[in-house]
Amino acid sequence: MADSLPSHASVVVIGGGIMGCSTLYHLAKLGVSDAILLERNALTSGTTWHSAAQVRALRNSQNLTRMIQYSVDLYSRLEKETGQSVGWIQKGSLSIATNPDRLTHIKRQEALARAYGIDARSISAAEAKERWPLMNADDVLGAVWSPDDGRVSPSDVCAALVKAAKGLGARIFERTGVTGILTENGRIKGVETSQGTVMCDAIALCTGLWSRELGAMAGAEVPALACEHFYLLTKPIAGIAGNMPTLSDHDNHLYIRDDSGGLLVGCFEPMGKPIAPGVLNESFEFGLLPEDWDHFEPMMMNALHRLPALETAEVKMLLNGPESFTPDGTFMLGETAETRGLFLGCGMNSVGMASGGGAGMNLAHCIVHGHTAYDLSEADAKRFAPVFNSLDHLMARAPEILGTHYDIAYPGKQLKTARNLRALPLDAEYRAAGAHMGQVYGWERPLYFGKTSEPTPRFERPDWFTNVGAEVRAAHEKAAIFDASPFGKIEVEGKDAEAFLMRVCAGHMNRKPGSVIYTAMLNDRGTFESDLTAQRLGPDHYRLFTGTAAIKRDMAWLSRHAEGFDITLTDSTEAYAVLGLMGPEAARIVAECGAPELNELGYFRQTGAHLAGIHVRAARLSYVGEAGWELTCKATNAPALYAALTAAGAVPAGMFAQTSMRVEKGFCAMGHELDSDMTPITAGLDFAVRKSGGFIGAEALAAARASGTRSVIVSLVLDDAEAVPLGHEPVYRGDSIVGKTSSAAFGYRIGKPVALAAVKVPLAEGERVKVDIARRLCDATVTLGPVFDPSGSRMKP
Ligand SMILES: Cc1cc2nc3c(=O)[nH]c(=O)nc-3n(C[C@H](O)[C@H](O)[C@H](O)COP(=O)(O)OP(=O)(O)OC[C@H]3O[C@@H](n4cnc5c(N)ncnc54)[C@H](O)[C@@H]3O)c2cc1C
């Protein structure tokens, strides 16, 4: 008798591709014995069944690398665990470079892989040719060899995961499509299906390219869209005997491997083909899209160059399958901001098989424990501005993201599509001043000024080096304006405002009105959910300033902890502009603009004032290490304020100048030094934490403090002024990797490249270490504090 749907399940996994199967398996492993998986067709019948299923660990970020490493471990042990073969073939992968920048790119990835114990080594073009004799290696400059990479049979992996999950109590329902999602007060209650209703506490949404429409059923934004993705299959070719490594020829947009004695040649062409929602519906079961030889032709030419044997090969088919892409090329994992209990595991950007093992593990961990197994904020389901859920923007952006899959990770690189979505109040002024814009959370922000042409992407000193230097010099010697308008701004108002913030923030939130308070917002593990600056405007009113991209996430966190407090929370981000006026001449400028009294304002104090007749709230603080104020005014008044400040001698400065100055000052930033694996103690920010407790995370912090946990953040100054560290580089002491850089820049005020790094062993002031920049070990000196103005005298009045 067919199994019937239960009336209740604690977790409903929707979708039976790799993400759904892996999530179900890991839920079962974590003891959720009543989880069910609903698949409207047959398991794997969406995208997973036709995946090329390569598992390649080299990535640009530490935790995505770590996650794929987990997948490798899982896939290599599943057969033993379940008795079900998964077709795991561990023949390694070969990444070739045909230009110097690609060589740098793959060597940077190799360096990062080594930091995680992944075997990856540089080899010569000749050795690469030995490993792939069919390849034309004439233009190959070098390669990285990763022996542990492999590939799987996607359907068999899913079968093994499901078999193990069933053994632990999970149940699978095929031919059971979800037709509606039930919510109550913004919380998941259940699902309606073609076979009846199931009440549940949580949903894991693993519905691949259909996730945006499923998310909408629950009122959540899921900005992902499918594109066509191609690989060519040939009949057997002489010279292919047995399994070979995967060959990555990313300069030619190709991945290549053997398949049943022939070749499989896949591509990420520069601009993909988007698929509008609705085109592929539930009848698309084990479906494929039509061949498109015109579109594939340039890639075919590239393939013929790399593999001359293709010339005479017989083509079996040009497979065209759909795959979903997100606005930034990373998948979405975790609970949505809009709907409690709705967890996303989708938008896999063509690495669903490689990531699936680790992503499913992290998603299950998130559902069961409330957080991923390690920080995955780069994949956070709450990271996209609502504007990105627009279909028009997705139709433009998704094909570009497909094309960037094999891009070289140049510093400062910007996407071209779906731009100009959100303009700063001073957008026109900045463009008139020659701003080169970068997109953050949909906002166009000046990266640097004095733009004369598009910068040439490179790993050496960038085109903007002198522009940024001039902006730093202005802030250091005269006065510069740093635009902080896109910072998330949240008004916390009501009679319980202080009590609420004392609960959700670790800082001294009970300081008097007129104060500025820097605070960490922690979870109950004592690690960072966010860090923010609060201005206490009155006894019952605070304005919180949080990261530009953190607003959705922070609003969700605050709202979810507001129950029982008499407060209101309002997102006022767009109502106000914030101009950071910084530098030794800032004092003269505010006096000339009619507010000399601001010079009497103490550090971390704020007050109302009028500058050139415009009401501002001036807060005395500095993120760049020079004296000044962050001036908040109505967005509509920003042009007049800017005109007055620039007429008095201030010049605009961009984000690159700010980052350089921040790193010299050793100020930690969310997403760089601070994340959900870091506590204020390990980040060296315990001074800003209330030792009296009473806030979320206090117990965990007290325990960590008692056990002698210490700061792990150090500053590094590199000897070689020409070296260009970018962050994510291993740090060596002797032959051992002792840490990794988290932010890096050229420090114009000290005249040397500078980095912040998290280290796992204590390092002493002045100790000598090496930073691995694309396998070149650069000497550096450790400083246990800011490398510029350690006493902070320049920024305090
Ligand atoms: C040509 C090609 C080659 C690729 N090669 C690689 C590779 O080499 N390495 C790699 O890592 N990745 C690769 N990928 C990507 C990888 O295959 C995908 O990322 C992955 O398979 C996506 O899995 P998923 O579980 O997210 O989605 P899917 O496999 O699409 O699963 C989603 C499931 O949800 C079901 N569903 C949808 N709506 C409902 C509903 N209302 N109710 C119930 N069920 C529903 C669907 O029927 C479907 O089965 C490739 C992709 C393509 C197209």
TrEMBL record:
Pfam families: DAO, FAO_M, GCV_T, GCV_T_C. Keywords: Oxidoreductase. Residues 369-422 form the FAD dependent oxidoreductase central domain. Residues 713-789 form the Aminomethyltransferase C-terminal domain. GO terms for molecular function: oxidoreductase activity. Signal peptide: none annotated. InterPro entries: FAD-dep_OxRdtase (IPR006076), FAD/NAD-bd_sf (IPR036188), FAO_M (IPR032503), GcvT/YgfZ/DmdA (IPR028896), GcvT/YgfZ_C (IPR029043), GcvT_C (IPR013977), GCVT_N (IPR006222), TrmE/GcvT-like (IPR027266). Residues 11-364 form the FAD dependent oxidoreductase domain. Gene3D superfamilies: D-Amino Acid Oxidase, subunit A, domain 2 (3.30.9.10), FAD/NAD(P)-binding domain (3.50.50.60), Probable tRNA modification gtpase trme, domain 1 (3.30.1360.120). The keyword Oxidoreductase applies. Residues 429-691 form the GCVT N-terminal domain. Transmembrane segments: none annotated. It comes from the Bacteria. Belongs to the GcvT family. This is FAD-dependent oxidoreductase.
